[in-house]
Design a protein that fits this description.
The complex is a heterodimer of chains A (130) and B (76). Chain A has 130 residues and is α/β, with parallel strands linked by helices. Chain A has 5 helices and 4 strands. Chain A has a single domain, classed as Hypothetical Protein Ychn, Chain: A (3-Layer(aba) Sandwich). The chains are: A alpha/beta (130), B alpha+beta (76).
Chain lengths: 130, 76
């Protein structure tokens, strides 16, 4: 039986969606599932080196994540890579439009990836979008 | 010789205690016992589920004064 594969597409820059994406990706990755995370749109700036991870909340729950000290989404994404061998791939189009240089991204973020390569990776995977 | 290690995940929420456990598991030897302390009810359920899924041994889960003690033995 082929390994289970999940592609997590993250386009939102809000705390709740980034948190849920990070939780799902990290637990899947450490459970033997092949996980690819594709970052685009408003998610990308949060992965610039040193960005504090203070994403705006969509609602009251996002504020609770902070006050209750839930694990922050950047830590969970890093753990998905370090503990679970997940791949985090930034969208090359998003980097171009935002003028973000690859060298300025967090070290756990991989190479810029276009849609053709992403679609190849997603061809036989479940795709979850946040 | 097998060791017993304590992982203090109190004050963290799911999946924080699980990720802390996995980090320590990776550096442990087969046969080592790891006891996770957590006051997160979700982690008390989710950690044994993960342990069964990936093939380690769930030794016990007990609760005392709002703190769960989840003991896991590294099996592979």
């Amino acid at each position: 039986m082929a390994a289970q594969k999940i592609c997590v597409v993250v386009v939102s820059g809000t705390r709740e969606r980034l948190q849920m994406a990070a939780m799902a990706a990290s637990v899947a990755a450490v459970s033997g599932i092949e996980v690819t995370i594709f970052l685009s749109m408003n998610a990308v700036p949060h992965f610039i080196k040193g960005a504090p991870g203070n994403a705006p909340s969509e609602g009251a729950f996002g504020d609770l994540l902070v006050t209750k000290k839930a694990p922050d989404f950047k830590t969970l994404f890093r753990q998905a890579v370090e503990l679970g061998d997940a791949k985090i791939l930034p969208c090359s189009m998003a980097l171009d439009i935002a003028g973000i240089d690859t060298d300025t991204l967090e070290p756990f973020v991989g190479e810029p990836t276009g849609l053709t390569a992403f679609l190849n990776a997603a061809a036989d995977a479940q795709v979850w979008t946040f | 010789m097998a060791e017993k290690k304590i992982i203090d995940g109190r004050g963290s929420f799911c999946p924080g205690p699980l990720m802390e456990l996995i980090g320590v598991l990776k550096m442990s030897q087969i046969g080592d016992e790891l006891e996770v302390l957590s006051n997160d009810k979700g982690s008390a359920k989710d950690i044994p589920e993960w342990v069964h899924k990936v093939g380690h041994e769930h030794v016990s889960t007990t609760e005392e004064a709002g703190v769960w003690h989840i003991t896991v033995r590294k099996s592979k």
